């Protein structure tokens, strides 16, 4: 299967669509009786009313989630290929994105982080471009605004502000205008939100938006390890990908090295951002799928022993299906 997706054969689009449905068989067969979809954070509902959460049936919820993941996979695939992060253009990024988006049952439903992945993929594209532009100020401003829109949908998205400065450290020499441009873009959106709250004599509620940022990072987490056994094959592939990347690191273009460093930081930031939402759910971690899928695709793009990497992928898919049904 991996060999099939190592090229840009248009037939792979049909196979990807079928694969997306296949990876969701568990939830289609065992359809939940009710699924609530909260599209926006509570503070955003004060000025934006979208009565979507109560109008979608469980089947419609899962259907739209499937379509969204497929579209995101195609967009993601195009961006990774355009920036030449893998050995050659292929459909492996889309394949691994769909696989990563199917790891847990909560990944298979409509959720705010799933919607935010459109913005995250867009941000990835912009970060990968900033080394190629003479002046990154407007790009950083745009990224700041995108992060603000993501924060309206799902508050933990705000932690991606850290990526503004991490990416500048990796890609650009110091320019104080670029360093503040992204933050100004972020504040621009929330300035208008603050004005709206003020006009409605509710400015005290606006201040409460930022309270989650003062949360302490949890010192211990209640983890049901059986629920995360599916991550064992994923971790094995990531370790193999890291070893592969290390072996090729100094033979790669400088831009490729910096891109993978940036994606690693994005992967970590996406995971740790859960602390800003005390009642976070497992679907939060779908934010880590785009940067993580690049690393997985890198391994399968460079692996040499076909019997091994094909078997490893089959084990991964079977493990996902087993834990989804169980």
TrEMBL record:
The chain crosses the membrane at residues 12-31, 62-80, 92-123, 143-167, 179-199, 228-246, 258-276, 282-300, 307-325. InterPro entries: DUF6427. It comes from the Bacteria. GO terms for molecular function: monooxygenase activity. Keywords: Membrane, Monooxygenase, Oxidoreductase, Transmembrane, Transmembrane helix. This is Beta-carotene 15,15'-monooxygenase. It comes from Pedobacter frigiditerrae. The lineage of its organism: Bacteria, Pseudomonadati, Bacteroidota, Sphingobacteriia, Sphingobacteriales.
């Amino acid at each position: 299967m991996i060999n099939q997706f190592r090229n840009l054969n248009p037939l792979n689009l049909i196979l990807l669509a079928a694969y997306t449905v296949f990876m969701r068989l568990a939830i289609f067969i065992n359809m939940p009786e009710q699924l609530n979809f909260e599209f926006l954070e509570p503070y955003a509902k004060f000025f934006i009313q979208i009565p979507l959460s109560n109008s979608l049936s469980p089947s419609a919820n899962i259907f739209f989630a499937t379509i969204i993941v497929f579209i995101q996979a195609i967009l993601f695939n195009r961006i990774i290929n355009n920036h030449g992060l893998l050995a050659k253009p292929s459909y492996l990024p889309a394949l691994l994105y769909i696989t990563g988006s199917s790891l847990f049952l909560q990944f298979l439903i409509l959720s705010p982080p799933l919607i935010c992945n459109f913005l995250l993929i867009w941000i990835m594209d912009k970060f990968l471009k900033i080394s190629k532009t003479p002046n990154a100020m407007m790009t950083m401003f745009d990224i700041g605004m995108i992060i603000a829109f993501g924060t309206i949908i799902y508050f933990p998205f705000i932690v991606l502000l850290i990526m503004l400065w991490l990416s500048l450290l990796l890609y650009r020499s110091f320019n104080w205008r670029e360093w503040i441009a992204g933050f100004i873009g972020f504040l621009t959106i929330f300035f208008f939100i603050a004005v709206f709250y003020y006009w409605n004599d509710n400015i005290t509620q606006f201040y409460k938006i930022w309270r989650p940022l003062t949360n302490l990072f949890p010192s211990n987490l209640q983890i049901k390890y059986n629920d995360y056994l599916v991550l064992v094959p994923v971790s094995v592939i990531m370790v193999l990908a890291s070893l592969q990347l290390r072996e090729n690191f100094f033979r790669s273009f400088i831009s490729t090295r910096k891109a993978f460093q940036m994606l690693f930081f994005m992967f970590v930031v996406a995971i740790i951002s859960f602390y800003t939402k005390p009642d976070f759910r497992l679907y939060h971690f779908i934010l880590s799928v785009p940067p993580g899928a690049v690393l997985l695709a890198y391994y399968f793009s460079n692996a040499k022993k076909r019997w091994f990497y094909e078997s490893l992928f089959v084990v991964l898919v079977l493990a996902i299906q087993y834990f989804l049904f169980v």
